[in-house]
Amino acid sequence: MKNTLKFFVGYWHYGIILTYLSVISAVAGICLSAMGYPFFGGVICLWISGVCDAFDGVVAKTRRGRTKEDKMFGERIDSLSDLIAFGVAPAMIGFGLGMHEWYYLIIFVVYVLAALIRLAYYDVTEELRLQDKNSGERTSFEGLPVTNAAIAIPIFYLAAIMFRPLGGSLGTLVPKLVMGFAYLLVAFLFVFRFKMFKAKVRGLVIAISIVTAICLGLLFVNIYVFGGLNVVFTEYFV
After folding, report:
1. What pLDDT is attached to residue 148?
2. Enclosing domain of residue 74
3. Is residue 194 part of a domain?
4. 90 and 108 in contact (C-beta within 8 Å)?
5. How many domains does the chain fold into?
6. How far apart are CA 52 and CA 165, in angstroms?
7. pTM
8. CB-count burial class (<10 Å; 0-12, 13-18, 19+) for 190
9. How far apart are CA 78 and CA 20, in angstroms?
10. What Rg value do the Cα atoms of the chain yield, rounded?
11. Over 60: is that where the pLDDT of 204 sits?
12. pLDDT of residue 26
């Protein structure tokens, strides 16, 4: 099956459309976070990237007659897109929250490097696994897959902005400390050697539903209990 174009490099087919959508969402989130729209921009775009990445492999496998080059291209572009979507974009959410001090730069660097190392290590181990004809289907991962940033960062973010109504230095400092802790924790789990099971499609749907419910619950608490989003709206939109 021919998937290349005469005048353009790459492999062009519907099997990688979700990967491209993930990158588009990530770039949009990076730009919106840099512009100062942390909640409606970066967090929602990160969640969208997570959903796209969760099902891009499922969509790719529906194509018949995939060539070796086609599969390799999909694997490479998936890892590159993951670095943007779950490495750089989450760090920009913290920047959009106001983490501009020099020491937060160190945290961002540690986080992105951990994501990069995790992705490179996965690529190496996956290629070696595929070369082994007796390896079978992958059932677990070593370390936390970077896609899980789309779960952890939104939850920590919504928890962090609950402290905004405290006002003063506490209302500014505590959310940054919460997010700083989140980045370091997630970065550690990216590279820490432990086994994590690989979810099937049903498991992915359940996980996305649970995370969405948690985020909506935190959003409800922010609006009706702490008024955290009102503070965010005032700071960024008024």
Report:
1. 92
2. 14-237
3. yes
4. no
5. 1
6. 34
7. 0.85
8. buried
9. 9
10. 19
11. yes
12. 96
